[in-house]
């Protein structure tokens, strides 16, 4: 018998409901994180527990982009693009993690935006405020994916850190699906900085989410 105690669970699965969207009727699942009380979500579609790799997105909360239509980032368009792709495939999962502002929160992200308005880039702004360039970790993804029996994902991301993080957690990323959407005059230099300083794989951008969901 092992002397190692079983690690305490990071979060609890709480409940689910139907979530009709313009593209498909998802099931919304809610978890509560023990350490913070934050409510993390999974939008699921189709039979995601059948052992086949699941088209998946790990999406960090961005209230300004996801809800308030901000063009300063690509977050809202990525959220919409990912859901459209899952709907088109008829199967997939979007993990909605409450990691606003790359983990520094909304108010601090707004402070970082003010610094960017004064000329510094998105990474330097975080550092000037005393934060890491990217304060996120992805350990919650493991129990969230395990809840549905998901061990392999086709991950919609441009961020190599997400692929590394999931791989280290024991989730196999069988494929990376680029999510290049909504480069515009307001977020152009932000996206360039992500590529130059955070290692994002930005490839050839397209202007916007296409009507048919093909990105
Ligand atoms: N601190 C900070 N956070 C930002 C800024 N712009 C967007 N964010 C946050 O960054 C997170 C999204 O990160 P991104 O770098 O766009 O994307 P990613 O999640 O790393 O990678 P992808 O999977 O390719 O989208 C969200 O939590 C946003 O709120 C910014 O200028 N400063």
TrEMBL record:
Residues annotated to bind Zn(2+): 62, 73, 75
Cofactor note as given: Binds 1 zinc ion per subunit.
Domain GTP cyclohydrolase II intervals: 15-178
Pathway it works in: Cofactor biosynthesis; riboflavin biosynthesis; 5-amino-6-(D-ribitylamino)uracil from GTP: step 1/4
Enzyme class: hydrolase
CDD domains per UniProt: GTP_cyclohydro2
Catalysed transformations (reactions): GTP + 4 H2O = 2,5-diamino-6-hydroxy-4-(5-phosphoribosylamino)-pyrimidine + formate + 2 phosphate + 3 H(+)
Keywords: GTP-binding, Hydrolase, Metal-binding, Nucleotide-binding, Riboflavin biosynthesis, Zinc
Cofactor: Zn(2+)
Enzyme active site: 134, 136
InterPro entries: GTP_cyclohydro_II, RibA, RibA-like_sf
EC number: 3.5.4.25
Binding site for GTP: 57-61, 78, 100-102, 122, 157, 162
GO molecular function, one term: GTP cyclohydrolase II activity
Pfam family, one: GTP_cyclohydro2
Family membership: Belongs to the GTP cyclohydrolase II family.
Record function comment: Catalyzes the conversion of GTP to 2,5-diamino-6-ribosylamino-4(3H)-pyrimidinone 5'-phosphate (DARP), formate and pyrophosphate.
Designated name of the protein: GTP cyclohydrolase-2
Natural source organism: Massilia jejuensis
Annotated gene: ribA
